[in-house]
Amino acid sequence: MAITHNRDFEPHYGKCVWVAPAIRRVVAQNPNAFTFTGTGVYLIGTGDVAVVDPGPSLPVHLDAIEACLLPGETITHILVTHTHTDHTAAVPDLATRTGAHTYGFGPHGPVSSDDPLERLDFSDHISPEEDAAFAAEWADLPEELKREGPDTTFVPEVVVGHEPADSKGVSGLLTAANWTVQVIHTPGHTSNHLCFRLLNDGTGKSALFTGDHVMGWATSVISPPDGDLFAYLASLERLLLGSDDYYLPTHGPVIDDPAPYVRSIIDHRNDRTEQIVDLLAGGTHRVVDLVPQMYADVDKRLWRAAGNSVYAHLLALAKEGRAEGANGTTAITASWHLT
Ligand SMILES: [Zn+2]
Fold this sequence. Notes:
Blueprint: E1 17-20, E2 23-27, E3 40-44, E4 48-52, H1 59-67, E5 74-79, H2 85-88, H3 91-98, E6 101-104, H4 128-140, E7 158-159, E8 172-176, E9 179-185, E10 194-198, E11 207-211, H5 229-239, E12 246-249, E13 255-256, H6 258-281, H7 287-294, H8 303-319, E14 323-325, E15 336-338
Parallel strand pairs: 4-5, 5-6, 6-7, 11-12
Antiparallel strand pairs: 1-2, 2-3, 3-4, 8-9, 9-10, 10-11, 12-13, 14-15
Helix pairs in contact: 5-6, 6-8, 7-8
């Protein structure tokens, strides 16, 4: 089953856009292949305001967040969905500017090694010329605008969202004078990923801030070892326990009528797993050969990330005892086969 993505989004860089009476958004100008049009930063409530994922540490962007406040308003809370730098780099600066406290699940989990044996080599499918062009393009990017990487420096002042969750999947509650937010632990994209549910957006609707867990413009990247496909699927099911009117991902447009969309993501992931099973059965054994077949229509700049997601599926198959790497190994660079 195909997912219907929606890339129709005008970021209005640096401008304060009112999404609902209790929700404002400012988009940072850090567009790239991973952030789409950039990081969408949400402000929740009026008076005492919570900021969801401050975004990249660009002074002009921090100014724009503060310029979004009305006279007399204060940023009192900084809520962090997960520790990728395009979400968290500005946390220390914003906390210093405002005195707000930070809320999150915890520090980043395990980071993949720099071992060259763990690096995917696409040279059979990406020409040296293309590769050189991508590398040059990459080198030209300011450090701040590069792809989302793990932020291993973030430690929340207030730890929220740990299990157990209630029957609706909620494992925390944050309140201020004018707003109430439920915390939902949604591991998968990262192990410390949280979604935040604003119970009333000012019109009586419930809005879920989904970070990178559910996005409208693209599927989420799941990078082992911290990313986990089974956890991700369980976290999608967890969202379906709620009945949100709409989702606000960090990147891209609002997702209206979210439940069918979430179901389509679950179906899509299960289809991807079966596609990999078919390709393994058909004689394709390496991640670097699976990706070009599975993601032929996707920008090659994203193939390394796609390779991580394919690897997440292979690890899930290994957990189920359906596939393994050569000699029983589970490395991303291994030659994989069905058991
Ligand atoms: Zn992320």
